[in-house]
Design brief:
Elongation Factor Tu (Ef-tu), domain 3; 4 helices; 3-stranded antiparallel beta sheet; single chain; disordered N terminus; alpha+beta; 2 domains; 6-stranded antiparallel beta barrel; 298 residues
């Protein structure tokens, strides 16, 4: 008699168990699936701006944080603070300078108007001298002055209009630079996007960020099982159904309730995701990602 190697026999046995698990569960009026322990909203990775050096790390694994808490400060924060301050000064200066320029141009327009009025008055007075006293060349000069001063008013008013039209754009441009500087400064701190627990800190002070997550955190107070359910069983499952998850590594089965059934079925694996909210997150929060056998009561 020929015996298969132990490793082959063990592999075959394991495969048979996985294939028979859903069938065995269904035989008892239950649906079986394979799942993983996952936090609500999954694991969140904070990356920061690539190339920035790590200046200070304010948290450690297992620390509980609140939304908005600063977790890591980058080494270029001081420089970015200076850039932001300069941008704020430029924004204020753009408005103040623009307003001052408009006020000065108003005076220029007023002076141009006065010159025109004076030239027109002098021309009128000269014409009153009568034809015998008027010199044609002097008359032409005075008429020319009136025309030129009138053109001066038109020109200075056009400049005033231009200044008024340009001011909003200059202010908007300065505000855009200020907003960009503010965003860069904000990015110099990695903050918690929500309440949770620090899972891992992957960088040390002095290292540079490279785009991969520097800190991992998750909401371990709300743990789920993400179960892969065969497409033939999806329509048999409804929100509110009781479920349990077990593993040889767990001290006891975990219980929960079906919260949501994903609408998309993977065309390759023929599986759909079912989210089961666990009644207690204490144990599951210590073994995030663990594979479990899931039973859903029909």
């Amino acid at each position: 008699m020929t015996f298969a190697p132990l490793s082959a026999r063990a592999g075959g046995l394991l495969l048979a168990l996985l294939l028979s698990w859903p069938l065995a569960a269904q035989a008892q009026g239950e649906l079986g699936a394979i799942g993983r322990l996952t936090p609500k909203n999954g694991i969140v990775g904070l990356s920061g701006t690539p190339g920035s050096p790590v200046g200070e790390i304010l948290v450690a694994p297992d620390d509980r944080v609140k939304r908005g808490d600063v977790l890591m400060v980058l080494g270029n924060k001081a420089l970015l603070e200076t850039e932001r301050a300069l941008a704020a000064i430029e924004r204020e200066a753009a408005e103040r300078t623009g307003i001052d320029a408009i006020e000065v141009q108003k005076l220029v327009v007023n002076n141009a108007r006065k010159r025109h009025e004076r030239a027109a008055a002098e021309l009128a007075q000269y014409r009153k001298l009568g034809p015998n006293a008027i010199v044609e060349r002097e008359l032409q000069r005075r008429e020319y002055d009136v025309a030129e001063t009138k053109r001066g008013i038109v020109l200075e008013r056009a400049r005033l209009k231009t200044l008024r039209n340009e001011l909003p754009f200059k202010i908007k441009s300065a505000e855009a630079r200020l907003e960009a500087a503010t965003a860069r400064l904000r990015a110099a701190e990695l903050t918690a996007p929500g309440d949770g627990t620090i899972l891992e800190v992957r960088k040390r002070v002095g290292e540079h960020l490279r785009g991969d997550p520097a800190i991992l955190l998750a909401d371990l107070d709300n743990m789920y099982v993400t179960a892969d359910v065969y497409e033939g069983d999806v329509l048999k499952i409804e929100p509110g159904m009781k479920a349990s998850a077990k593993s040889s590594a767990l001290p006891a089965p975990l219980t929960g309730v079906v919260e949501r059934i994903e609408r998309i079925v993977n065309t390759d694996s023929k599986l759909a995701k079912v989210l089961i909210k666990l009644d207690s997150s204490e144990i599951a929060g210590k073994v995030v990602g663990m594979e479990v056998q899931v039973t859903i009561a029909r």
